[in-house]
Write a structure and sequence with these properties.
alpha/beta, single chain, 14 strands, globular, six-stranded mixed β-sheet
Length: 264
């Protein structure tokens, strides 16, 4: 079972369990995890970490006393130790499931994601702060070219993939998406759906890649409407080291969108 545990003002710590053992993703705060373990009678089998920011790792040490397994995290970032460092292409097995590690730099320099492998009708993706519903993470340590490549790698996953990002930013992101594509009916419809969810105290996540391809401007950087909106924000002023014109334009569009979103 997959459960988002609310933390801080807008974080989610994802918990995956089989009724006996739980794994958690990006536990920035130990309290929600400990409460869930106790209330459901679960043992903490392990921890997955996507990147080093405090709101994703701050609860790890306070969970050590109940932890019965490893902490996995990105090899190129400082994670509270001890932890098992992971590289692109590594595979993590947990609760009978297999997850492939994908390097997704951009938000941070060594950010990773975990994509479920094997036969599954709706595979899981734990993507931290790289891909959000209708948005993407700020570029604190990486470049637009890196983020563009990282998002393309995630976008290559199956359409039914469940996007388990770690912040409840969906409505804010949809407001921006509507500014980018005011005539995108999928954005308008999903906004109404998410407003109803939030009014009832429900999370808007997980999303799906199929949905994100319709509503997320950062996955739509080749769409004519998105390109036109980005150009109005100065996309032609950006350059990158991409090897072909199509990739270069996509990076320029993403860079313009990200800077626009930063001040939106």
């Amino acid at each position: 079972m997959l459960t988002p545990l609310p933390a801080f003002s807008d974080n989610y710590i994802w918990m995956l369990h089989d009724g006996l053992t739980a794994w958690v993703v990006d536990p920035g705060d130990a309290a929600p995890v400990l409460a869930a373990l106790q209330s459901q009678g679960l043992a903490l089998g392990g921890i997955l970490v996507t990147h080093h920011h405090a709101d994703h790792v701050g609860g790890i040490q306070a969970l050590r006393h109940v932890l019965r397994g490893p902490v996995f995290g990105p090899a190129r970032e400082r994670i509270p130790g001890p932890f098992t460092p992971l590289h692109d292409g590594d595979v993590v097995e947990l609760l009978g499931l297999s997850f492939r590690v994908i390097d997704v730099p951009g938000h941070t320099a060594g950010h990773i994601a975990y994509a479920q492998q094997g036969v599954a009708p709706d595979p899981l993706l734990f993507c931290g702060d790289t891909l959000f519903s209708a948005g993407c993470g700020r570029l604190f340590e990486g470049t637009p070219a890196q983020m563009s490549h990282s998002l393309a790698r995630l976008d290559a996953l199956p359409a039914a993939t469940r996007v388990c990002c770690t912040h409840e930013y969906t409505l804010s992101n949809l407001k921006f998406a509507a500014a980018v594509e005011p005539d995108n009916i999928d954005v308008l419809n999903h906004t109404r759906h998410c407003q109803a969810l939030r009014q009832n105290g429900q999370p808007t996540l997980p999303s799906s890649l199929a949905l994100e391809r319709r509503i997320n401007p950062f996955l739509r950087c080749s769409e004519a409407t998105v390109v036109a909106a980005a150009r109005r924000q100065g996309a032609n002023n950006y350059s990158d080291n991409a090897s072909d014109n199509d990739s270069g334009e996509a990076v320029a569009v993403l860079a313009a969108l990200r800077e626009w979103k930063n001040r939106f």
